[in-house]
Amino acid sequence: MSTAGRSIVIPHLGRVEGHGGIFVKVVGGRVHEVNMDIFEGSRYYEALLKGKHFLDVQGVITRVCAICSAGHTVAALAALENALGIVSSPRVFKMRGLLTLGATIESHALHVFALALPDFLGFDSVIAMAEKYPREVAFALKLKQLGNRIQELIGGRAVHPVNTLVGGFGKLPRHRDLEEIRSALSAAQAPLAGFVDLAASIEVPDFAARPTVFVALRPHEDGYRFRGSTLCTSRGEEFPVAEYRDVVREFTVEHSHAKHAALASGETYMVGSLARLALWGDRLAGQARTAFQRLFPRGVEENVLTNTWAQLVELVHCLERGQQVCEELLGLPEEEREMQEYDVRAGRGVGAIEVPRGTLIHEYSFDDDGIIESANVITPTAQNLANTERDLRAAVERLLASDVGSESTLKLKLEMVARAYDPCISCSVHVTCL
Fold first, then answer.
1. Torsion, Cα of 80, 85, 90, 93 (10° steps)
2. In sequence order, which residues have a C-beta less than 8 Å from that of residue 184 and are 6 or more positions away?
3. Does the pLDDT at position 269 exceed 50?
4. I need a labelling partner for 196 at 20 to 30 A (CA). Which of 248, 271, 376, 432 fits?
5. Residue-number span of the structural domain to which 133 is assigned
6. Of all residues in the chain, what percent carry a pLDDT higher than 90?
């Protein structure tokens, strides 16, 4: 098959959130151009927030995306409270952590079982996969529902939380509801271990493997956690989150409605489950540590296709950690509401958390009346897009050199690379328009 002047076009990338495609141009047998095309309509949330009161921020910014609404809420509240000098009470901190765990369970369950696993098992959809694995797919759906139930309990509803407020929560969950969630988290752990065994039996291809810089937040405590105040790289660099603009450089590209990002050095990098395991996998405990050792016997390798297995490890962690947080909350007196008082003042705040797809950063500045003067959000998918294109280039070069076979086979493998990042395209296309 001649590759002179050949174009490889995937007009619509399936089994991802949002609308995007892949374009590859091969000239004279060499890969000339690789684009991850994002043509989802742009959203101007940062510009829309200017002139609004900071109390309106989370209600607006959470609507960047339904899947990621809890993550945007927690990151926005962290930034706003940082600007106001509010330190969360232990109960509020734990509840927001539980909300984040619920969002991760819901998102990872969807991606691992419905979007990515069909590729590895030879199915074109989760519906086709359900014919051979009906009980497994049914369990995956129940696991996703459990994540939604946690978000509904803590956030007031499963999508776009309304119970999360600057300084606390409008309503605290009853102990009986926390006991129900704790029991459900416990009951899901044994069936999920069966999926770990299934995944361990599948050989993950390495056609997209290449050296990668990983970036993630240093956990706020010794355990494996999704919140912190320091950005770390796999090269040993550390930066305070408040200085993220000195570390992460966003830029625009002609072929995408979404920004791209690189480190100050110009290098692309990866955020997400695989990055978190690469940096902090040694902090896992319990069944999550067992799953990590089972799925990554040689440790984390620089192969994006193993990101799905990393998400599976995090699912195990979220079930165990969620059960633990419920027990900690049950040890506190049952109360109706918890809010901290604060004084409105001018300020700038930066907040960052690890959401399912990687490190999410929010920054807000407002005046003495609490009116937003500037806003900036850097999403995981936007950070990953440049690295995605580098992985796609590596994959194309290897696959063409190995005579991959039919055009449809080549396209499927390229889709696998893009899907491995679990891109949230709706989150990625918010841009600042000033």
1. 20
2. 146, 149
3. yes
4. 271
5. 45-428
6. 86
